[in-house]
Amino acid sequence: MPSRKDRGFEHPIPSEITPRAVYEGRRELLRRMAAGSAGAALAAWAGRDALAGVARPGKLAPLPGGSSTVPGAMTMDRPTAYEHVTGYNNFYEFGTDKDDPARHAGALRTQPWSVIVEGEVHKPRTYALEDLLRLAPMEERIYRLRCVEGWSMVVPWVGYSLAELIRRVEPTGNARYVEFHTVADKTSMPGLASRVLLWPYVEGLRLDEALHPLTLLAFGLYGEVLPKQNGAPVRLVVPWKYGFKSGKSVVRIRFVEKQPTTAWMAAAPHEYGFYSNVNPHVDHPRWSQATERRIGENGLFQRKRPTLMFNGYEAQVGQLYAGMDLRKHY
Ligand SMILES: Nc1nc2c(c(=O)[nH]1)N[C@H]1C(S)=C(S)[C@@H](COP(=O)(O)O)O[C@H]1N2
Ligand SMILES: [Mo]
């Protein structure tokens, strides 16, 4: 994302390849969702350490119809192959090359895990992962993910709205923003030795953004436990903002009164603002944001896709920014 040039994804592998275990796990999950027992299935995940880069070939069947009732949560765009979703990542704690996370994230221990929820709330609490998995019914959400670097993917996540958690801790009248701190573990994360960012990686949202039903607390993708390179065991997904707003491997959620300074704002304030809504009309100082490259659609004649306002979620989230100058609040 910073000064590095995006090298693109060069593997000549057909985009339909998805590990069989992943496909079968997803099918089982969807079956259980239909039967109303997905919570139990997902709770069983807590007893396992997350995957890191599985690679057993198998065919991905046509995706079944949507399971989320949240408007906008089921894009009809074709999901990006599992292999790309889990092989082309940004997770700088493991290094800045796109394949560093898949190569190194296996060392991260995701179990036991807990998330501290604190600050301006009436009911602060430390949640064990097991409690989070059972907190609310899981659903599948198929979201576009747009990285500020100019590429995008489509990912079938599994999780529930962050609002479910927020409701339970009861924010006080002073809570106006939410900070997300992600794990910083020197023993497993070689990237922490670099000075690319200040660690731990901190991100933030305005409280109304955090409460929006599209803001997802994700525990899985493709019907399986989140691979470590994608932010196991729990991460945020904010689909109308550039990908870096979606912190991985979250360990702390803090409700605050003042707008937080995020890791990327601190690193390059002129390039990365607090809002970072996907916006084709506001360019990054060093490149255009008008178009994007959809990972997996590479080939000699790949056409760039036009980038959509709020990443295509304008109908759902546009009102959050009514009256704001989006050039100023980039
Ligand atoms: N902790 C942490 N979270 C992070 C990042 C990171 O470097 N560290 N990278 C962000 C960026 S730039 C993007 S585009 C997305 C990528 O998510 P994915 O690898 O699951 O596609 O994760 C975001 N979350
Ligand atoms: Mo990104």
From TrEMBL:
Establish whether keyword ATP-binding is in the entry. no
Q: What GO MF terms are annotated?
A: metal ion binding; molybdopterin cofactor binding; oxidoreductase activity, acting on a sulfur group of donors, quinone or similar compound as acceptor
Q: What is its EC number?
A: 1.8.5.-
Modified how: Predicted to be exported by the Tat system. The position of the signal peptide cleavage has not been experimentally proven.
Indicate whether Metal-binding appears among the record's keywords.
yes
Per the database record, which ranges form the Oxidoreductase molybdopterin-binding domain?
109-264
- What chemistry does it catalyse, as a reaction equation? L-methionyl-[protein] + a quinone + H2O = L-methionyl-(R)-S-oxide-[protein] + a quinol; L-methionyl-[protein] + a quinone + H2O = L-methionyl-(S)-S-oxide-[protein] + a quinol
Per the entry, the cofactor note is:
Binds 1 Mo-molybdopterin (Mo-MPT) cofactor per subunit.
Q: Which InterPro entries match?
A: MsrP, OxRdtase_Mopterin-bd_dom, OxRdtase_Mopterin-bd_sf, TAT_signal
Family membership noted in the UniProt record: Belongs to the MsrP family.
What PANTHER family does the record point to?
PROTEIN-METHIONINE-SULFOXIDE REDUCTASE (PTHR43032), PROTEIN-METHIONINE-SULFOXIDE REDUCTASE CATALYTIC SUBUNIT MSRP (PTHR43032:SF3)
HAMAP family from the UniProt entry: MsrP (MF_01206)
Role description: Part of the MsrPQ system that repairs oxidized periplasmic proteins containing methionine sulfoxide residues (Met-O), using respiratory chain electrons. Thus protects these proteins from oxidative-stress damage caused by reactive species of oxygen and chlorine generated by the host defense mechanisms. MsrPQ is essential for the maintenance of envelope integrity under bleach stress, rescuing a wide series of structurally unrelated periplasmic proteins from methionine oxidation.
Subunit-level organization: Heterodimer of a catalytic subunit (MsrP) and a heme-binding subunit (MsrQ).
Name of the featured protein: Protein-methionine-sulfoxide reductase catalytic subunit MsrP
What is the name of the gene encoding this protein?
Answer: msrP
